[in-house]
Amino acid sequence: MGKYDKLFEEITLGNKVTVKNRFMLAPMCDDSSDDGEVNDQQVAYLGLRSADVGIANTGYAYVNDSGIQIKGQISAAHDKNITGLSKLAYAMKRGGAKAILQLSHAGRDATGSHEYGNRVYAPSQVDFPWVHYDFSEMTEQDIQQVIQDYKQATRRAIQAGFDGIEIHNCNHDLLQQFFSSYSNRRTDQWGGSLEKRMAFPLAILKSVKEAAILENRNNFIIGWRISPEERHGQTVGYDVDEMVQQTKKVLNEGIDYLNLSLNIAAGYNNGKRPDYNAIPINHKKSFATIFRELAGNIPVYVGTNIFSADDALKASDSDEGVAGVYVGREMLIDPNFVNKIKKHEEEQIINTTTIEHLRDVKLPDGFVDNYADTDGSTRSVSYRNGIPLPGLD
Length: 393
Ligand SMILES: Cc1cc2nc3c(=O)[nH]c(=O)nc-3n(C[C@H](O)[C@H](O)[C@H](O)COP(=O)(O)O)c2cc1C
Prior knowledge:
The chain is α/β, with parallel strands linked by helices. It has one domain: Aldolase class I (TIM Barrel), CATH 3.20.20. 33% of the residues lie in helices and 15% in strands. It contains 14 helices and 15 strands. It has helices spanning 40-50, 82-93, 111-116, 140-160, 174-179, 194-197, 199-214, 240-253, 287-295, 309-315, 329-333, 337-342, 355-360, 365-369, and strands at residues 11-12, 18-19, 23-25, 55-62, 74-75, 98-104, 121-122, 136-137, 164-169, 221-226, 230-232, 235-238, 257-260, 300-303, 323-327. A hairpin with a 2-residue loop joins strand 11 (230-232) and strand 12. Helix 1 (40-50) runs parallel beside helix 2 (82-93) and helix 2 (82-93) crosses helix 4 (140-160). The longest helix is centred in the middle third of the chain and has 21 residues, at 140-160. The radius of gyration is 20 Å and the shape is globular. Residues 373-387 have low confidence and may be disordered. The structure holds flavin mononucleotide. The site of flavin mononucleotide has 24 residues, from strand 4 and helix 11.
């Protein structure tokens, strides 16, 4: 019995589909597409990183043209995108991974949509200090339209050959904006009480499940990613207990796995940025344990700051539930991370990087540009959520 064997056990998802091991390629948008169209660099980049994991996740694909957080994200908003998406699905599935298209809508944070001149909207028109453009409060018609847009995007994912979709109900996107009492000040059926604030995410879940039924795909995987709390200093959008209530409903409705995004959790991790060990305030158990206990036999993926085989083992060390592990930045640096652990070559794992190395391991140009100054020198990477890549500080 090898030390890391547990990481290579099969996992059974909610819909009884099995995945070959506990690893997930974390959702990471590369911001490199051409006006939403998948390009060859992205196919090569994601294909390379998908081969050895159980689940390979694309990162944000927007469901309509008002939901673009950053230009360069992949589009699942139009039928014309299906051809490009199918190339991606094919490359991601080739090594036996389940290929997942993550669906998102940025709501008020749709900077990309604003730059394209598209309308931006949110649950409520609040003066958010970081938003420097006009956006409107969603009408009932807008809400119904977005619910339909998720359904259509799911149909496109199915037609493109993906094994499943993951709903991005986290990292401050539109679904989270509805759940957050800070962002949602509505007084209709979509805002106010806890029940009403969770109505929109639940309506999206129902809608994507309907799409799978309409396309006759019982075994289509529906993943669900959450930020377990929204807490920034004194500003609390929701706490972990409220998210537990939402997740109970979601589990009741039926999902196939749960994915915990931990980087915007406030973090009670001995003063460090939150990761798979983080414990919510006024609680004794970690976020990971709380949600694994809640989910029972529905797998729960946790991660953040996984750079070694031992990190991965620790993140999946659990007496309760079914533990999956997502790996993000390390898979950018070393696409063979999982295979090296499997082959007992964990000392060979690469942990630091240079711009040249990132190009060698097929990061798309647009992605690499996020790591280099215009003169080509490296800089401190304050990319997504301020998480630097090791070696580039
Ligand atoms: C470049 C980059 C892009 C990301 N894009 C997404 C995304 O599209 N969707 C998402 O849910 N999380 C996204 N994340 C968060 C990651 O999925 C992951 O939670 C985070 O990077 C922590 O894991 P790590 O420490 O293994 O990198 C992104 C992170 C990075 C570094």
